[in-house]
Amino acid sequence: MFEQLGLIGCGLMGGSFALALKRAGLVRRVVGYSKSPSTTERARQLGVIDVEAPSALLAVSGSDLVLLAIPVAATESTLKAIRHLVGPNVLIMDVGSTKRDVTDAARRALKQDVGVFVPCHPVTGREVSGVDHADAGLYAGKQVVLTPIERTLTAQLEQAETLWRALGCSVVHMSPDTHDSAFAAISHLPHLLAFALMNAITGQDQGASFLSLAGPGFRDFSRIAAGDPEMWRDVLMANREELAAQAGHFQRALDEFQRLLASGQTDELQRLITRASDARAKWRMTSGAEAP
Amino acid sequence: MFEQLGLIGCGLMGGSFALALKRAGLVRRVVGYSKSPSTTERARQLGVIDVEAPSALLAVSGSDLVLLAIPVAATESTLKAIRHLVGPNVLIMDVGSTKRDVTDAARRALKQDVGVFVPCHPVTGREVSGVDHADAGLYAGKQVVLTPIERTLTAQLEQAETLWRALGCSVVHMSPDTHDSAFAAISHLPHLLAFALMNAITGQDQGASFLSLAGPGFRDFSRIAAGDPEMWRDVLMANREELAAQAGHFQRALDEFQRLLASGQTDELQRLITRASDARAKWRMTSGAEAP
Fold first, then answer.
1. Could you count the other beta carbons within 10 Å of the beta carbon of residue A272?
2. What CATH number has the domain bearing residue B123?
3. A193, A231: one domain
4. A65, B3, B96, B231 - which has most CB atoms within 10 Å?
5. Residues of chain A found within 8 Å of residue B253, distances taken between Cβ atoms
6. pLDDT tens digits, residue range B42-60?
7. Same domain, yes or no, for A241 and A145?
8. What band does A127 get if pLDDT is binned at 50, 70 and 90?
9. CB spacing of A280 vs B194 below 8 angstroms
């Protein structure tokens, strides 16, 4: 049980975390701050936070738990802004989709206090953003990746793990670099492809009429293209090296398909599709009760 | 009300059509044929068809409605096999995902009788195949594209339209070429990208561990990669020219993203993501009660 959550960033991810924590009876009070005062006010009106803080620093004051739920590029400046209220008994976590840049930012900003910061990536999200979509059930049944560094304190790491499990999450540990390679492949690259597909279609004269015919396959494939632009700009930039490596793997696979199509090698084409289809049919989300 | 549906191809699409027709009380009897006798037998056991036919020709015998629910590449040989039982009072339809190749095949196979063939593409499907997944609700609320040619008979066209509407579908008409351009963009290319992504990931040593971390975004994006390999081999091959054109549009959009990432142009990157995100957020499936 935490006395006070200092929530920095009262959007979809942060707001949902606050609601989940409250529903689980794990926190007495939530003090929230968002860059936009109207977001903070809305979060209080919705009961997502109890008290509006006029700054990140004041949200941290008196908090034994702090969550950063902000674009990853804002991590360093935010941690610098709260640094002199960071003591050894606080647990600070984030929910960012990239981890090497976040851990580097934490090292630079928190220096000798970096041990209280546990880098977290809950593998969840929605195609809508904003506190109005905050949902106490957003995290339940999902995976959370923790990427502790050598200086992370064991006490905080265990506290974080216990907390996420209490919200119904399964927890895995890995290095920030391994995390970033994996998520370049399974998340950042798919987002990039979905963004590029939308722009490729809407850039054509007939784009709107094409889209009017699209069905459930397109709906699911393109859902992630509706992601928050500012957040995804930061994620793609922060992880651009791993993303470029994964885009290279993808490009070679795509070129191979196109070569077979151009040369009419139908047997080999079917073999490649079968490999993809079998792999996808076999795949199941590790956690989460949802159907694949 | 039809006396007898001759169902050629008792898989997911054909089986679901038979069940939907029966549920709507639109057919007295369903005679089914599949290339694999065990599929035909299974379809009868499940009540999807009433009578097993040992050949496509015998499924057509006595039928006033014929549905081809087979890989598009089998259209010409199948129509040739049934041709001499095709009279002026039958309605023949297909459910293929490409239309120029299908209409060309119908012209060649049916010659002066091609007018009774109404090319149809119901925009639906699932990531599983086979008669065991046949579902009377597969077509309800979906769009069906009809691509009549200049020789298509008005009577058959109206019959087809009335039939699909009775199954709860909305019906649009366009030329086979327009259809194929549109579906290259909104369906065939997304499938190709999803296949290539799966192969790009599983081709890496860490592919399996990457996949174990994937969440709901990946699940939705990659769902279509589990499509039936034989069907998709045919669709991609049949529409490879339009597909190559759409892949060109996509490649240019992707290259633009990669250029901005490499050069760190974050403002321009955000602008491109915003364009994609806004377009996807605005898009709604034309028909279908499902959420986008």
1. 20
2. 3.40.50.720
3. yes
4. B96
5. 196-197, 199-200, 203
6. 999 999 999 999 999 999 9
7. no
8. confident
9. yes
Average pLDDT over residues A222-235: 94
Tokens of B18: 């038979």
B213 — contact with chain A (CB < 8 Å)?
Answer: yes
Same domain as B126, residue B19: yes
Number of domains in chain B: 2
Domain span holding position A215? 178-282
Q: Is residue A289 part of a domain?
A: no
Q: Between A262, A272, A283, which is nearest B211 by CB?
A: A283
Q: Are residues B268 and B197 part of one domain?
A: yes
At B183-221, the pLDDT tens digits run 999 999 999 999 999 999 999 999 999 999 998 899 999
CATH number of the domain where residue B215 is located: 1.10.3660.10
Per-residue pLDDT at A289: 40
Q: Looking at the structure, do residues B135 and B239 belong to the same domain, yes or no?
A: no
In this prediction, what percent of chain A has a pLDDT beyond 70? Answer: 98
Share of chain B above pLDDT 90, in %: 93
Distance, CA of B18 to CA of B4 (rounded, Å): 11
Domain boundary residue, one of B112, B146, B175: B175
Nearest CB among B127, B197, B261 relative to A250 is that of B197
How confident is the model at residue B125, as a pLDDT?
81
The ipTM value here is: 0.85
- Comparing CA positions, the residue from B31, B26, B38, B28 lying closest to residue B8 is B31
pLDDT at A285: 79
Nearest to B189 by CA among A127, A264, A217: A217
pLDDT at A70 over 70: yes
- Asked if A125 has any chain B CB less than 8 Å from its own CB, the reply is yes
Q: How far apart are CA A68 and CA A99, in angstroms?
A: 13
- At A134-164, the pLDDT tens digits run 999 999 999 999 999 999 999 999 999 999 9
pLDDT band at B287 (very low <50, low <70, confident <90, very high): low
A276 contacts chain B (CB < 8 A): yes
Q: Is A53 strand, coil or helix?
A: coil
The reply to whether A90 and A214 lie within a common domain is: no
B 57-86: CB under 8 A from A? none
Contact A199 B261 (CB under 8 A): no
**B-chain residues within 8 Å CB-CB of A244?**
258, 261-262
Position B289 pLDDT exceeds 80 = no
Q: Which helix (H) or strand (E) holds A251?
A: helix A240-263
Last residue of a domain, one of B159, B175, B191: B175
Q: How does residue A287 score in pLDDT terms, banded at 50, 70 and 90?
A: low
A193 and A266 within one domain: yes
pLDDT at A55: 97
